[in-house]
Amino acid sequence: MRDGDAPFDALVLGAGPAGTSAALRLQQLGYHVLLVERSAVWPRAQVGEALTPGVRNIIELLDANDALAAVPHVAHAGSRVLWRGRTPELLQEAGSAIVDRGRFDAALLALARRRGVEVEQPARLLHLAGAAGDWRIGLLCGEARTRQVRARFILDASGRGAAPRIACAPRLAALWGEVDQSALPQLGGATQVEALEHGWLWAGCLPGGRYRLMLVCDPHAARQAMPATPEARLRAACAASHLLRAAADLPMLGAVQMCSATPYLAPDCWQDGRLKLGDAAFALDPVSSSGVEKAMRFSLQAAVALHTVLGDARPDSGALARRFFEGRLVEACARHAHWTEAYYGQAWCAEQPFWQARARCVAGVRGEAEADREADGDAAESKWPELLANLSAERARLAGYQPPELRPLASLNPALPLRLHGDAAIVELPCVVDDRVCLHQALDHPHLERPLAFLENEALFPHLARLAQPLPLAQLLHMLAASMPGHKAQHIAAWLWQRGLLESVG
Ligand SMILES: Cc1cc2nc3c(=O)[nH]c(=O)nc-3n(C[C@H](O)[C@H](O)[C@H](O)COP(=O)(O)OP(=O)(O)OC[C@H]3O[C@@H](n4cnc5c(N)ncnc54)[C@H](O)[C@@H]3O)c2cc1C
């Protein structure tokens, strides 16, 4: 039990998927959490209803399956995708679903409350004083009640909004509205995705018989172009499309809405005692429909970072937790930007300016300096050079990475000793072990997309350090098998050989 005046371990601002995932995970790890949600309307409307299959693992880790069972959802009925060519491809993605996001977020918040997370809603921050480890926070709860609390950490999961932000790609805007699904029987409930010359369309069934139409485009071009209103623009895009032409003249079930969809990163995501999570830390291009999954996953990583700082007395635990947290953020943004650029480059209309501007990095031409920037991004770059240099380095690494051609296993001569390939290096990597961050040795090599500390859930080190000197294969297998099942030892040796990470000596 927490004594009434004792500080909370963490105060989380915002009860979207990022905030509730962090709160639930921290509560599982034994911490006292106060979750503050501003919205008085609850469940509140929220865009971002298509959930990728990876959300399931996270829900399982949070033990939230039962709590989410009653959330209205539509199982994925396949997608018709008109992207690479002029004929639609039919895609099935097992495990994905479209949910009522308001109810999804509300069910997670109700679960957090039941598990012992304290919740203030509607409430907002009035003032903040103190410092890391002992924040003093004034809250306005409801219309008139004020409450003073203390917290060791503040986690900002308040969504898209606050600067500074570094745009990770040229600006994007999203415009969306809904029509009655029964007016489009020919679509068979399938999701539709279509590349148009000046943007792309996404459309899919929402729970309750509504059909969402969403246009993603360049906000400048959209403003300059006729017709001027968001609804007219959305209708014009449907009319110009191949898959959604029938929706162009249907009555809308409410106003067409518009928001920024530019991918960005908040370079101040880790400040002493204050962390940003979810959309407050980074936003991805909505083309992958994976924002919710990535926001939730990052919150789990943030909980591990916090657990390391709060529960680990080693003097370097704070620096290590920060390195891990920022590293995961950079990795998420860089990987997604890399994937998105390749995907934009595959569109049938990839030579159009909208597409070229978003696919340029694939050809290796686009540097960060050319990226369109939001808010005070330039100032942020000079203030957080290390994080941004890491982002550029990660993007360059991904852009330059070529998967190796696999060597046949038959080329491995068991009579010859093996050692690590000459280009291999042993580096130290922040890894999660028992819910805490620790430094682990990892193998780095140009044939690896990123340094590797574990393979098949088994630590590669200290074993591989012995391969600085030649070692017979039988001895390598014997050494690996001392800490893992024999078949895994064999797989690992084969995996390393096939990718050219080991070389024969003799
Ligand atoms: C157009 C568009 C389409 C998208 N489509 C998809 C999709 O199909 N699939 C997908 O996975 N992702 C999608 N996304 C991304 C997804 O919506 C976000 O990644 C996700 O909502 C992020 O969750 P979050 O918890 O960080 O923020 P949010 O979901 O925005 O939650 C933030 C919460 O904080 C509260 N809040 C705000 N300010 C305060 C404050 N000061 N104090 C207290 N509380 C506060 C808000 O009321 C809200 O409840 C899309 C994004 C856009 C822009």
Compact summary:
The chain has 506 residues and is an alpha+beta fold. The chain contains 13 helices and 27 strands. Among the domains are: 8-75 and 99-159 and 266-323, FAD/NAD(P)-binding domain (3-Layer(bba) Sandwich), CATH 3.50.50.60; 409-504, Outer Surface Protein A, domain 3, CATH 3.90.930.
Produce the secondary structure layout.
Layout: E1 8-13, H1 17-28, E2 33-36, E3 50-51, H2 55-61, H3 65-68, E4 73-75, E5 79-82, E6 89-91, E7 97-99, H4 101-115, E8 118-120, E9 123-131, E10 134-141, E11 145-156, E12 166-167, E13 173-180, E14 191-196, E15 199-206, E16 210-217, H5 219-224, H6 230-240, E17 257-260, E18 264-265, E19 270-271, E20 274-276, E21 282-283, H7 291-311, H8 317-345, H9 353-359, H10 377-383, H11 385-400, E22 418-420, E23 425-433, E24 436-444, E25 454-455, E26 458-459, H12 473-481, H13 486-498, E27 502-504
Parallel strand pairs: 1-2, 1-11, 2-8, 5-14, 11-20
Antiparallel strand pairs: 3-7, 4-7, 5-6, 9-10, 10-11, 12-18, 13-16, 13-17, 14-15, 15-16, 18-21, 19-20, 22-27, 23-24, 25-26
Helix pairs in contact: 1-4, 1-7, 7-8, 8-9, 8-11, 12-13
The structure holds flavin-adenine dinucleotide.
